Amino acid sequence: MSDLKQSTSLPRFSPQPVLKISKAERTRTAILNSALDFVWSHPFREMTVNSVMVPIGVSRSAFYQYFKDLHEVIETLLNMLQEEIFVAAKPWLMGVGDPVVLLHEALAGLVQVGYERGPIYRAFVDAAASDKRFEEAWNQFLGEFDDAACVRIEADQEQGLIPAFDARPVAIALNRLDASMLIEAFGKHPRSQPETIREALARIWVSTLYGSEWFGSTSSNLLRK
């Protein structure tokens, strides 16, 4: 039985939780969700302000009260995606106990985020190919995950849980694999089955970091302190 949630409706962003949600915050969130809806079925290069504002019944001129341009909309979506990914990865990045169990938990969360937000990945990668601003933002996005994974790998190496090797290129390779898989599997409809993607990534991450004896296993006798 899969532990990943599958939904037939498009995932939504919600306004920031406050005692009273302002009209401005609701409108800003509606714009972000409209942009997310658009990139489910269209490349970013086809997005216009009208294509984002007309579906939510808000004037084109109102767009500029909330965002400077469409680039800022997509960058905002990427920043929100980054926050969700770090939350999903926290068990492995920060947790104690069996690192294989923690890694499986983190990858399940990562794949769930990818399943829900795949078009954001795809929109950014497509735009980065021809836009310097997007390219720099995408590289920064990936670099922060590289840094976090590298720190975790080196910490586990110090505890004797992972063999000695240069952690950074391995972290980069694993993170690029994740990004590529999530874009390919979830970047547009129809999406792949999330459990299949999670299992594939888990096999590669676990065997690469913690050894072939735990290949395909959901737990180990290792202990992270």
Jot down its keywords.
single chain, 225 residues, mainly alpha, Tetracycline Repressor, domain 2, 7 helices, 64% helix
Number of domains: 2
| Beta content | under 5%
CATH topology of the largest domain: Tetracycline Repressor, domain 2
Number of continuous helical runs:
7
List the uncertain runs.
1-10, 16-20
Structural account:
With 225 residues, this protein is an all-alpha fold. It has 2 domains: 20-67, Homeodomain-like (Arc Repressor Mutant, subunit A), CATH 1.10.10; 70-214, Tetracycline Repressor, domain 2 (Orthogonal Bundle), CATH 1.10.357.10. It has helices at residues 23-41, 49-53, 70-94, 99-128, 132-158, 167-186, 194-210.
Give me a quick take on this structure.
This protein is mainly α and 225 residues long. The chain has seven helices and no strands.
Give the SSE map.
Blueprint: H1 23-41, H2 49-53, H3 70-94, H4 99-128, H5 132-158, H6 167-186, H7 194-210
